[in-house]
Amino acid sequence: MLKNQPYDNNVYMKLIKFVSVFLISNVAFTVTNILLFIASLFLAISSANFIIFAIAFIAYGVSLITTMYVLDQYKEDRDLPVFKTYLIGVKKFWKQGFIYWLPVLVVSIIVCVDILSFTKLEFVKWLIPIFVIMFVITVGLGINMMYFKIKNPQGTWKDIATISVFYALKKWYVSLLNAVLLVLMTIVIFIKPQFGYLITPSIFIGLLFLNCSQLHKNKK
Fold it and tell me: Membrane-spanning regions, if any (predicted)?
């Protein structure tokens, strides 16, 4: 004989809560990247708007580490106030998010500019793989540092950087996967901004966080 499930334990309510966490996190992600959101909606991707997009991407790292923090907290408390938790994450990790993301942004700009330049020069096209490798390692390092800082908020910069570099190089294939995920998330944002901001950020960031948590599960 079937029994009525308590309201809070109802499978549909759990699903609704899960979806709401993702949607609210995505809204918070969009608000944090409001300049990028506006730029992706109204500006064409061209060299004329390059500087504007570069500036708009500055807050990207803050939203990445903060969304990762929300997802990490959600694992411990399924009833957490999502937006409040996001604000707490911003307050705790905005500086680290900016610092860890800045090298990724700088390397991304360099790689994009150089690849576009080198594709026109036949004799230096062999340098393109080197820039791609540099991008992958930088992304792997940045994502690892965000993860370890969330898991070890009292950890020193040296300790966080050391273990992040170690795994970014040793587990290079995970760095490659994380770089691909980050690029895909960014592409979706530009191709379909409404979908890319309101649906996919938490999915992609959740996969980034999952990769790190599995890779470093013995180092939490």
Answer: 21-44, 50-71, 98-118, 124-148, 172-191, 197-215
